[in-house]
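Record format v2
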Amino acid sequence: EPEVTQTPSHQVTQMGQEVILRCVPISNHLYFYWYRQILGQKVEFLVSFYNNEISEKSEIFDDQFSVERPDGSNFTLKIRSTKLEDSAMYFCASVRRNSNQPQHFGDGTRLSIL
Amino acid sequence: GQQLNQSPQSMFIQEGEDVSMNCTSSSIFNTWLWYKQDPGEGPVLLIALYKAGELTSNGRLTAQFGITRKDSFLNISASIPSDVGIYFCAGPIIQGAQKLVFGQGTRLTINP
């Protein structure tokens, strides 16, 4: 069964540095998402992306965050100047259509900011 | 915004016992999803519910979509060690692109 894949599985970065998290959504899916999960808390929506542009973003997704689909397969989340509070699991998800179809999640990238 | 409240927050049970957890919302959802998360992994879909009153099974798991569309429950029968994990309910909000709202999760621990 096709999967959403994310790299790296764990990223350790100094505060203030830029970080790029990478995702390869399922190949025939059209809608892409990033979610965040702070340790011990629930999964929170960050941003949705469709047709090469952001569809919606949460209040968490401030000017330090950006997303890009640089080619036909990758979907990236960039944090420009990381803060300690950015430490979390970041999950990428995708779905084929904008309907009630369930989203498929990757295994996440654990981001640790020192 | 729309929020989902799950209960209980955690459960400690003996292997072989049945488990029941639920999820409530102050507003209506047209779909309810139940995901399981193992440590260090992403949420994996267990059951999707699309119609009010729907009762759906997936092996030892059974979930129901409440008739008010504001709640759902998940039951696990005859629990086994691999059932350990965090169970999340989620509902899609479709305004523009779909986004998921998650509950806080129910952490299930099983004593062998």
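The two ends of chain A are 37 Å apart (CA to CA).
Chain A touches chain B through 29 residues (CB under 8 Å).
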